[in-house]
Amino acid sequence: MHRLLLVLTLAALAACNGREAVEVTLDQLVAQQAAYDGRTVVAVGTLRSHPDPEHYWIEDDGYNRVELAWGDDLAPYLGRRLAVRGLFRFDPDEGRRIDVEYLAPSP
């Protein structure tokens, strides 16, 4: 029930900017990264980081990972499950990234 509420909230926020978001697992993003490139997605994963150079990503239990580009400090969310909404980008040389528009703790 909490997950449904979170997805509905993120979908409502999506309507504010006119772009429809597709809910997708991290496994799907990794397996079909080129197909999702340039699309607005909602994905859930646990926030992890690396200090040098500092960067953040979400991952699932299968270690499927997607980097997050977000202007605010993500450190308070480390180790927590997050639902992330944003524009997914894939570049063979740079990897997978979500340009985050919204994020929220996920149950």
3D architecture notes:
- With 107 residues, the protein is of the alpha/beta class.
- 24% of the residues lie in helices and 44% in strands.
- It has three helices and six strands.
- It has a five-stranded mixed β-barrel.
- Strand 3 and strand 4 form a beta hairpin.
- The longest helix has 16 residues.
- The protein is globular, with a radius of gyration of 13 Å.
For the secondary structure, the number of strands is 6
**Count of alpha and pi helical runs:** 3
Strand order of the largest sheet: 2-3-4-6-5
End-to-end distance, in Å?
Answer: 9 Å
Topology at a glance:
Elements: H1 2-17, E1 22-23, H2 26-31, H3 33-36, E2 40-51, E3 54-59, E4 65-69, E5 81-91, E6 95-105
Parallel strand pairs: 1-2, 4-6
Antiparallel strand pairs: 2-3, 2-5, 3-4, 5-6
